[in-house]
Amino acid sequence: MFPVAIGLNHRTAPVEIRERMSFHPSQMLKALQELKECPGIQGAVILSTCNRTEVYAATMDVETGISSIKDFFSSHHGIEEKILEQYLYSHTLYDAVRHLFRVVSGLDSLVRGETQILGQVSNAYQQASDAGVTNKVINVFFQTALAVGKRVRTDTMIDQHPVSISYTAVELAKQQFGELQGKGILILGAGEMSTLTVKHLVSAGATTVLVSNRSYDKAVLLAQECAGRAVRLDDVDQYLAEVDIVISATASKHFVLMPERMQEIMKIRKNRPILLIDIAVPRDIHPEVGNIPEITLFDIDDLRGVVDRHHQERELAAIKAEKIIDEEMELFLKWHNTQSVVPTILALQKKGEQIRDLQVERALEHFSGLTPKQEKVIRSMANSIVNHLLHIPIINLKEYANTSQGHLYAEVFQNIFDLNVGEEGARRNMTKKRHAQGCHRRAE
User: For the segment 138-172, what is each residue's pLDDT rounded down to a tens digit?
Assistant: First the structure.
């Protein structure tokens, strides 16, 4: 049974297509059940976020599985398949495994190393599991992937380096004050940058946020997003004398905070320290404000320097992450390849047991008066002979399964021992054989 991944993301599809292709949480259970009923799908997970929609499935027939998923996308979202084709990507077999490992590690995200995707993949897998549409391959696939995502973050610290101006501003505030809960924070401005900053502040645990803007109505709307409070621009000096942190991102063409004004405010504060973070362009805070005792000032260039350094650190961490993925891929592939010869091994063991039982019964017919203990010794000896005889061939077959010729060894075993592996085992070997031939042709 083989994994496949079909979908689209922020690189392959514009937002209007991603919106149409997304699955609302209320639709997910029904969608998963419909997907599981599609031809060739033995297990499945749907991952739907603002930046990607993907189906991960386990199938005995890769071509049928891919066709079914594309048909499912088309019919469920009402988009013609020929239109979808230009946005969709398909990853089959081991490429699908690597893709999910990279997705869950944040290496395929809009922002490298972002942490949200790990939880989103975990939720998607949990939904599929609760819906009863996963199987053994999907379970091992996703449980391994989630462990890989956690290992990447633990070993590389890739998510410890902020790579956006607004997020970096909040991180600087945390570095200066530790926990933000209970700290007085004043946001000057209510535009896009201020909105992003407020979201990061809330995520960081800030509870006391004031918002001031030239348009008081806009300040009210933004304050509502963080359970904060809007204050009028004319009253800002009063709050500058009280808060601990000021993050300024107005659209003013001139400096909003001048040295003389801040010197008077610091007198009212009795020189209690204050952190000023200016993320506006043009700047809101005169650079000489930073020379006033007990004022710490960061401007947009300071933050960009941090962001650039963090970008470099994330790139280095991403290189380490790819090496981790290579290691984990090898372990997963060894497990998956071994699964491909399981039907052959089971058939071989079954045949050995049948021969053992037949010969033991024939032998016992020639003996009379055996005690139960003596009969048990004979059966145990026969069982031991069969197990010892099959042990080395089975171990070797598992090793051969991890080579490009694994399917051939399985077929040889089946022919030599005249094994009946069943329809599923035959399909498994044929699919693996076609894949191996395809890989060989690509290598040429």
Answer: 999 999 999 999 999 999 988 877 667 787 888 88
Task: Say if domain 180-298 classifies as CATH 1.10.10.10.
Answer: no
Most confident of 88-92, 166-170, 400-404, 424-428: 88-92
Average pLDDT value for the chain: 88
Q: Tell me whether strands 184-188 and 89-92 are parallel, antiparallel or unpaired.
A: unpaired
Indicate whether 423 pLDDT > 70. no
Q: Check whether 305 is labelled as a binding-site residue.
A: no
- CA atoms of 341 and 113, how far apart (whole Å): 37
Query: Tens of pLDDT along 299-310?
Result: 988 888 777 777
Active site residues: 50
319 pLDDT more than 90:
yes
263-279 burial string, b = 16+ CB within 10 Å, else e?
eebbeebeeeebbbbbb
Asked whether residue 51 is marked as a ligand-binding residue, the answer is yes
Q: Which residues contact 156 (CB under 8 A, 6 or more apart)?
A: 113, 317, 318, 320, 321, 324
- Listed by start position, the domains of the chain span 2-158, 180-298, 341-443
Q: What is the model's pLDDT at position 193?
A: 83
Does 219 show up as a binding residue in the annotation?
A: no
Q: What is the pLDDT of residues 272-308, one digit of tens each?
A: 999 999 988 889 999 999 999 999 999 988 888 777 7
What are the structure tokens assigned to 93, written together? 């077999």
pLDDT band at 105 (very low <50, low <70, confident <90, very high): very high
Q: In angstroms, rounded to a whole number, what is the distance separating the alpha carbons of residues 363 and 40?
A: 47
* 114 labelled ligand-binding: yes
Is the domain spanning 2-158 CATH 3.30.460.30? The answer is: yes
Asked which of 319-333, 362-376, 401-415 is least confident by mean pLDDT, the reply is 401-415
